[in-house]
Amino acid sequence: MRLSVRSAQIFTAKHASRALMQRDCARLSLFSPAKAAIFGEKERQIMTRPVVGIIGNTDMLNGTYPAYTGGRMNAEAVAEVSHCMPLLIPAHPNFVSVDELMETCDGFLFTGGRPNVHPEEYGEEETEAHGAFDRCRDAITLPLIRACVEAGQPFFGICRGFQEVNVAMGGTLYPEIRDLPGRMNHRMPPDGSLEEKFALRHPVRLSKGGMFEKLFGTDEVMTNTLHGQGIKRPGARIVIEGYAPDGTPEAIYVKDAPGFAMAVQWHPEYRAGEDPVSRPLFEAFGVAVRDFAEARRGRVSEVA
C-alpha cells in the first residue's frame, strides 16, 4: 500500500497519538496484559481495588453533545493516590439509584463543577446570582450523602461536593461570596494556564487539635481557590474546621459519622500526588475506602 506524503503524516501522527495514549493508560492500569499473564485468577481477586464512584457533572461537549464528565484529575487522584478504582457515575436518577450506587461502590468522590446546587434544595428562591444548575445531580448526590453518613460509607467532597455535603445536612449557601462585605473573590482567574488557575492563592486556618490539623500536621495550609458560592449556614452535624482569611468556610466534616465524611472547598485533585496538602487527603480517603471494602467483604463471606 502506497501513501501520499500527507496521508503518511496523518497516519504517523494518529499512531503516535494512540501509542502515547496506550502508554499513559498502561501506566495507570493495575493489570496490563503482561501482568494478567503472570497472575492467576485468585491473585487478581485478591488485588482487586475498591471502587470509588466519581460523581461528576452533565456537560455539553462543543456546545451540542451531552456528556457526563468527572475530570481526569479526579480519576488520577483516586487511582494513583487513594489507590482505588475510579468509576465515573452518570448522576441522573433515570440511570442510577442511591441503593445501586452504594452496593456497587465502596466510596464516593463528589467533585467540583460549574453547575450549582439549586437553592430550592435549601429553601431559597432562584436568582440570577445562583448561576447554572444540575438538578439531576442534586437528585442523586443529596440523598446519597445522607445515606452514606448513616451507613458509614466513605465520601470526600470537593468544591461543589463540599457545598452538597452542607446542603444534604440541612445547611444553606451564599450564591456569590465576592458580593459579601469584606469577602475576597474566590473565583479562579478567567484566563491563563492550568498552573495559573490552580495556583495557591490563600491560607486556610485550621482548628487546633481538629481532624484536619491532625491529618496535615499543621494548623495552616495554602490552597487554591476556584469557587463562587460558599457556606452560609452550616447544616446539622456539620463541623467547620477551616477558614479562609475572610471568614469563608473551607474545610468541614460530618460530626459522629461512622465513616470518612470530609469535604474541602478548594481543589486538592490538582497534582494530588505532589502537593503536600492534597496527598494526605486522598491517602486518608483511600485508607477509609479500603477498610470499608474489606469489612463489607468480610460480612458477605460470613453470610455465605
Descriptive overview:
By secondary structure, this protein is α/β, with parallel strands linked by helices. The chain has a single domain, classed as 3-Layer(aba) Sandwich (Rossmann fold). Helices cover 38% and strands 20% of the residues. It contains 10 helices and 13 strands. The chain has a 9-stranded mixed beta sheet, with helices on both faces. The protein has a two-stranded antiparallel ribbon with strand order 2-3. Strands 7-10 form a two-stranded antiparallel sheet. Helix 5 (98-104) packs across helix 6 (135-151) and helix 6 crosses helix 7. The N and C termini lie far apart (60 Å). The relative contact order is 0.13. Residues 1-23, 25-39 and 41-46 have low confidence and may be disordered. This is gamma-glutamyl-gamma-aminobutyrate hydrolase. Pathway: Amine and polyamine degradation; putrescine degradation; 4-aminobutanoate from putrescine: step 4/4. Involved in the breakdown of putrescine via hydrolysis of the gamma-glutamyl linkage of gamma-glutamyl-gamma-aminobutyrate. It comes from Celeribacter neptunius. Its EC number is 3.5.1.94.
Specify Rg, calculated over alpha carbons.
21 Å
Q: Give the name of the CATH superfamily.
A: Class I glutamine amidotransferase (GATase) domain
Question: What sort of overall outline do the alpha carbons produce when their principal axes are compared?
Answer: globular
CATH class: Alpha Beta
By CATH, the topology is Rossmann fold
User: Main sheet, how many strands, which sense, barrel?
Assistant: 9 strands, mixed
Name the helix and strand elements from N-terminus to C-terminus, one letter apiece: HHHEEEHEHEHEHEHEHEEEEEH
* Structure summary, number of beta strands: 13
| Assembly context of the chains | single chain
Number of helical elements: 10
Low-confidence stretches: 1-23, 25-39, 41-46
End-to-end separation in angstroms reads 60 Å
Instruction: Please give the domain count.
Output: 1
